[in-house]
Specification:
It contains 5 helices and 7 strands, in the order H-E-E-H-H-E-H-H-E-E-E-E. The strands form 3 sheets. Strands 2-1-3 form a 3-stranded mixed β-sheet. About 35% of the residues lie in helices and about 15% in strands. The protein is globular, with a radius of gyration of 19 Å. The chain starts with 12 loop residues before the first helix and ends with a strand. The protein has about 160 residues and is of the alpha+beta class. Helix 1 runs antiparallel to helix 4 and helix 2 crosses helix 3.
C-alpha cells in the first residue's frame, strides 16, 4: 500500500520564533550561560541562542562542559554587551550613532550572524518623528544603498 505524504507548514513560524526569542530575553528561568563585562555587570543568556548567532560563542561553548559557564567579555562595557545581546535576541538594538562603529566592530569580532558588513544591515533613524511618520530605514552596508519605503533600493 502506497501512502501519500503531505507537508504541513506554519505560516507564522518566523513570527513565533521571534516572539519566543523576545520573551526569552527577559525570562531567566532557562538561562545557562553568563556573560560578564569590565564594569562588573553580568547578563544571563541561553547557550543555544548564543551559539546559533555567533560562531565564536559556539566554539567557546562546545569546548566548555560546565553546566553554567561564565564568559568574560574583556574590554566591553555593559551598554555594549546589552546592545549585542538585544540584537541577538530581538534582531535589533538601540544604540547612539556615536557608538555605531564600535558596536559594528564588536559584532564583527564575535562574528555575529546577521550583522556583518558583507551581509548588510539597516539603520532605523529614531529622530523627532511623529507617531504618524514612518521611520526612515537606511541600508548602511558597504554598498551605501538606501532602502525605500516600498522595499526598492535607491542607489543614489
Amino acid at each position: 500500500m502506497v501512502t501519500e505524504q503531505i507537508s504541513l507548514k506554519c505560516n507564522s513560524f518566523q513570527e513565533n520564533i521571534a516572539k519566543s526569542y523576545r520573551n526569552l530575553r527577559t525570562d531567566t528561568h532557562f538561562c545557562d550561560v553568563t556573560l560578564a563585562c569590565d564594569d562588573d555587570q553580568q547578563i544571563e543568556a541561553h547557550r543555544v541562542i548564543l551559539t546559533a548567532c555567533s560562531p565564536l560563542f559556539s566554539n567557546i561553548l562546545k569546548r566548555n562542559s560546565q553546566p553554567h559557564p561564565i564568559i568574560y567579555m574583556r574590554g566591553l562595557k555593559a551598554k555594549d554587551l546589552v546592545a549585542i545581546v538585544d540584537f541577538i535576541y530581538n534582531g535589533e538594538a538601540t544604540i547612539y550613532k556615536t557608538d555605531l562603529e564600535s558596536f559594528l566592530a564588536l559584532a564583527q569580532e564575535i562574528r555575529l550572524e546577521g550583522l556583518s558588513r558583507k551581509e548588510g544591515y539597516f539603520l532605523v533613524e529614531k529622530g523627532n518623528q511623529t507617531p504618524e511618520q514612518p521611520l526612515p530605514v537606511k541600508d548602511i552596508s558597504e554598498t551605501g544603498s538606501d532602502l525605500c519605503e516600498d522595499g526598492s533600493v535607491d542607489t543614489n
